[in-house]
Amino acid sequence: MKWDKILKLLGIILAVAVVALMAVKPLIPGVDWLPFTNQIKQGLDLKGGVHVVLEAQDTPDAPVTLDRVKQAMAIIENRVNAFGVAEPVVQMEGSRRIIVELAGISDPEEAVRNLIKTAYLEFKTEDGTTVLTGRQLKNAMEGTNPQTGEAEVNLEFEPDGAKIFAEVTARNVGKRLAIVLDGNVIQAPGIREPIPNGRAQISPYESLDEAHNIAILLRSGSLPVKLEVMEERTVGPTLGADSLDKSIKAGIAGLIAILAFMILYYRVPGLVANLALTIYTLLVLIIYAALNVTMTLPGIAGFLLSLGMAVDANIIIFERLKEEIKSGKTLRSAIDAGFKRAFVAILDSNVTTLIAAAVLYYFGTGPIKGFAITLSIGILCSMFTAITMTRWLLHLVAASNLARNNKLYGA
Amino acid sequence: MLSLRERMPFHFIKLRRIWYIFSAVLVIPGLIFLFSQGLHLGIDFTGGNLMDLRFSQATSVEQVRGVLSGSGLGDSHIQQSGDTDFIIRTGELSEEQSANLVQALETNFGEFTILRNERVGPTIGRELLNKALGALVVASVLMIIYISWRFEFKQGLAAVLGLIHNVLVVLGFISIFQLEVDSAFVAAILTIIGYSINDTIVIFDRIRENMLNKKKGDLLENVINASLWQTLARSINTVLTVVMILVAMLLFGGTTIHNMVLALLIGIVCGAYTSICIASPLWYEMKKLENRPKTKAARA
Question: What is the pLDDT of residue B197?
């Protein structure tokens, strides 16, 4: 027995146990990043929420351009922020699509209707022709008329809009101009006189509040392009929590089965592998938390599968180790030879899997990308822990003279 | 006592015709179903609406279909799990139609929880299908290139032929039982590809090593056979551990990933068989073809 090596081993086991505790329990009160598994972001399929893909559509007077899509995105971002959900996602995909993700809302259906309403603002004359659209409206602000003290909404048109507005008002004095949002008439004020400069007032309103609400509707309704919902997925919070719960149970059951199998079949190296696998699991979880990886249901599957690959790397090594011991090598040189030979097999087999994961990341969307990311991180970590940790730990155990009988190494 | 790997109770390569017949039995029925009834593509690929609902009281498929018929959706696909949970698949519905349907269900069955509500436009579905097929092709080509570089082209080819065999078995199974194919299924197929190529590579790695130590007069078929027996314990143990995880996911995991896990389970068990009994013998056949013209030339 070499006590210094044994102490070192015990130290490692203790350190791993502490980190493992930090992963799941709020160990130190007041430290808010513990347990660190809480830092791992959950995808919509786990915490519930809504995922919407919007696509800009060409219309005769507002063909899709990158600029307009970007403007539309900015407007949607405003609306999302006004709604006040935690960590909303608004991002562009390609040149005409906008993806919006909202998590943890109690009534997702309602939120979609309110938030991602692809409001399309039009100004229509009495005969029903659309003369102006929201694109040509620059701004709309509520205000108080300095002379009468009445609440009003001040409109300001873009230069091209101002020109049309001047013509239209000139032709339609005494008639009404309907302001239509997504097909619903919000207001149809009468035209008192021609307005040449692109600045108009609508009045009176009963209160400043009412004017304010109309102004918001007009402003936010002035999307520069028409957007259509291409895809909408809602996961209720019940299903999300249920999925997470079940995945964790599945993970624990699978892990216990593997740990038991490794000890029963490979004995001392199996124990070492279990320690290495625990380190592997913690390492992967820390990386997920640090890199802000969003955990989704397929992502969990990817993580569990990479766990399988980590076990495989250990199995390849131990099968080699057995052979080397049987060929008459001493334990320590058998460990080195076993690792050297196993390394090539592990490298080549993992790289090919990594290729599949990379392709999946490149082609995939949303949850599938999540799967590819967790799988890739898992594979890289598994190569690292199998090749460095398992080897180092095995040498430590061998040097400590704790287990000298070759039978204990499965040979 | 000699261990299995030393006794080698049977010769993998000499028995290859048996494996070929077994594989034909595995693949051909699936192919027939694939061509006759195809795959049951989910809304991810076809576009459409899916509603996953939990009613507050026990309800029957007939009752739900009755309400759907009232909204002109009588031909929808309705799937029940437990007393209160239903998955309803329809063609693509507009916001308004969807809201009306929710309203109609509420009037008939009272309050219910929407577990999932998905709507996918047909364009998105088509794009996803194209991307999925693209991913499969690109991944296969890249893996052949890598294997050709690290091993040899013929081994890359044999590995990918094994893969195609493996994927056909899984697709056949999915088609026979008409399991729904969604985007998670694409991830499953790619994982199967990654795993089974992983399996094949470990075996080819052993063959590569044994070929270097080969003595003059050692027959190729014997070298391959010995390599297969030497890696057999690893092949079986690895599949076992992965199967443990997958079975746990099947038993405890949610219904949303059920089909994905089932596909993975079949693919990974079949992948181990493919690596041992299909990919390696196929490589042997290719090597034999390579030697034939040479011997003829020598005789002439």
Answer: 83
Contact between B245 and A254 using a beta-carbon 8 Å cutoff: yes
Question: Between 2.40.110.10, 1.20.1260.110, 1.20.1640.10, 3.40.220.10, what CATH number should domain B4-42+124-293 receive?
Answer: 1.20.1640.10
The C-alpha of B167 sits at a distance from chain A's nearest C-alpha, in angstroms, of 14
> What is A83-147 written as a DSSP string?
HT-SS-EEEEETTTEEEEEEES-S-HHHHHHHHS----EEEE-TTS-EEEEGGGEEEEEEEE-TT
- B194 in contact with A, Cβ within 8 Å: yes
| Whole-complex ipTM | 0.80
Secondary structure of residue B212 in the 3-state scheme: helix
CATH code of B48-120, in short, is 3.30.70.3400
Contact flag B116-A233 (C-beta cutoff 8 Å): yes
What does the DSSP assignment read for B86-116? EEEEES---HHHHHHHHHHHHHHH--EEEEE
- Summarised one tens digit per residue, pLDDT across range A49-94 is 888 888 888 877 677 888 778 777 877 776 676 666 777 888 888 8
User: Per the CB < 8 Å rule, is A236 touching B113?
Assistant: yes
Q: Quick one: A268 and A126 in the same domain?
A: no
**Final residue belonging to a domain, choices A178, A210, A233:** A233
Contact (CB<8Å) A301/B249: yes
What are the φ/ψ torsions at residue A388 (nearest 5 degrees)?
A: -95, -55
**Is there a single domain that holds both residue A177 and residue A141?**
yes
Domains of chain B, by residue range, sit at 4-42+124-293, 48-120
* Model confidence at B151: pLDDT above 70: yes
Question: Mind listing the pLDDT tens digit for each residue in B186-230?
Answer: 778 877 887 888 889 889 999 999 999 888 888 899 999 999 999
Report the alpha-carbon distance of residue A117 to residue A110 in Å, rounded. Answer: 10
Same domain as A125, residue A229: yes
Is there a single domain that holds both residue A261 and residue A137? no
- What is the CATH number for A135? 3.30.1360.200
Smallest Cα distance from A327 to chain B, Å = 13
Phi-psi region of A125 (alpha: psi -120 to 50; beta: other; left: phi over 0): beta
- The model's pLDDT over A322-362, given as tens digits with 9 standing for 90+, comes to 888 888 888 888 888 888 888 888 888 888 888 888 888 88
Inform me whether the C-beta atom of residue A349 falls under 8 Å from chain B C-beta atoms.
yes
Shortest distance, CA A253 to any CA of chain B (angstroms): 6
Q: Which of residues 18-37 of B touch A (CB under 8 A)?
A: none
Tell whether A250 and A174 lie within a shared domain.
no
B260 at A interface, C-beta within 8 A: yes
Contacts with B, A 233-292, CB within 8 Å: 233-236, 238-239, 242-243, 246-247, 249-251, 253-255, 257-258, 261-262, 265
